[in-house]
Amino acid sequence: MYRIRLLASLAVLLAPCAFAATHPLATVAEQSAFKRTGHYEEVVRLCAAFAEKYPDTVRCIEFGKTPEGRPMKALIVSRSGALTAAQAHERKLPIMLVQGGIHAGEIDGKDAGFLALREILEGRAAKATLDKLVLIFVPVFNIDGHERFKAWNRPNQRGPEEMGWRTTAQNFNLNRDYVKADAPEMQAMLSLMNDWDPLALVDLHVTDGAKFEHDLSINVEPVYSGDADLRKAWLALRTSLVEMLGKQGSLPLAFYPSFVDYDDPASGFEDNVPPPRFSHGYMPLRNRFGVLVETHSWKNYATRVRATRNTIIDLLELVAAHGSEWRVLADDADQRAAQLGGSKVALSYKATSTSHLIDFRGYAYSRTPSEVSGTLMTRYDESKPMLWKIPLRDDVQPNLTVSTPRGGYVVPAAHAGWVGARLALHGISFHVIESALPMAAVESFRASKVTFDAQPFEDHQRLTVEGDWKSEPIDVAAGSLFVPIAQAKSRLVIAMLEPQAPDSLAAWGEFNGAFERKEYMESYVAEEISRHMLKDPAIAAEFNQRLASDDGFAKDPNARLDFFARRHASWDDRYNRYPVLRSATPF
User: What's the pLDDT score for residue 17?
Assistant: First the structure.
């Protein structure tokens, strides 16, 4: 039955190809029967052409420039008369941002988006949806990567013949950059999002991985995380979307199909909550929803574009039908988020060991040693569909929870410039503390364990810390920043400034200097000082007890001298103290 529906769907997709060959709004993909995709110049041309043909409905805007100087284009589409952010906000219209080509080798979204847009404007799909919402369509996010164009940029993907590259010209993976916002492209995208405040961000991808019959997965957040009332709405959205896609011939999944044990189908799948470096992990921190659409790389390009086109159309129909009530829910969630001070908030999540068996449409396979690598590998037989019964772990629970400050966070003056700029990129509110606050009643986080990652990741050396917040009077200099927790984006504030959050500024290594020891005592000086300090009975007793109970300490000359250095007046009391402070009251 699935094969019959799929063939029927493909027939619908390919039927207009002769017509598309001469249509001024057709893509290279349509003209080539979905064998090829166009270069970025096509996006620039089509953006202008759509706006020219539909001047009352489409506006073509430039919202940034890439490092290589290319214009970042977006199409603003609505029949409501609201083609500016101010007009959309005044009319309280739901806004849906559809983003293609964040990984520019995974370019289904660009061609599917233009196809869907033309069909909508011609009245052949999603009729009347544009009267009730605003669609923002970014055909290609990673534009410089898109123009690194050649065959085999995606060796585990079937079509198109040539495509772009995963990362930017600066080698940033944009779908790891939402919180840290290093890339100029991401900074431009965040500015666009701050202006328009989209209710939904739909991020269009192509997945890697095993061979199976399912053609796409739909990953929606918040479902396990974020505001409890929003979770119910987005779970309902995911359920409706999966049902709609199933009726259109797809075999959609409601989770990301990555095996628990790499390359082993028997290990099953594990659902999770993505950290906010990812698009659909970031949006719940803004009390909005993110949809990650992953077509399956082993399907041909026509199949993938059709599935993506259907997803865009279905989401537009769902947002048109329910967007007004979802917009109210999101506004209410903003109000609740402003009250999070002093409450417990999860920083990360993890699936428990609880699982249940699911029916999964795979292929017959064998696992045998490879004659090339020597390791055990899975070999699939696509001529033999097989129903797998494999475990799914989808009992996702908080993994790390913190009690938040009642007032907010204090960023010291020494870091105020760059941290303030980073907060402003996300539209987070803060203000400058004008006068010094001697011995302010604040909390500080002192790390009991510090681990620097051995390898760089996304141009950073990441950091993991263990420790606790404790009350400690500390001088707060004039020029420091106060970041109140009483704001709509409090979840994002917490995610950025709690040092143990997975994508905090600290986790990305932005404060690594605070955890590097910069001052030392020469050993001959330490020897002399230690003898003097041993005259203190309390210190002598503690030292002798440590010698007797810790054999490793007793045998380590450096550790023995360090025992005294840490208790001496010359010790750096800022070492291993996270620079950002917390306050129970506003400053």
Answer: 53
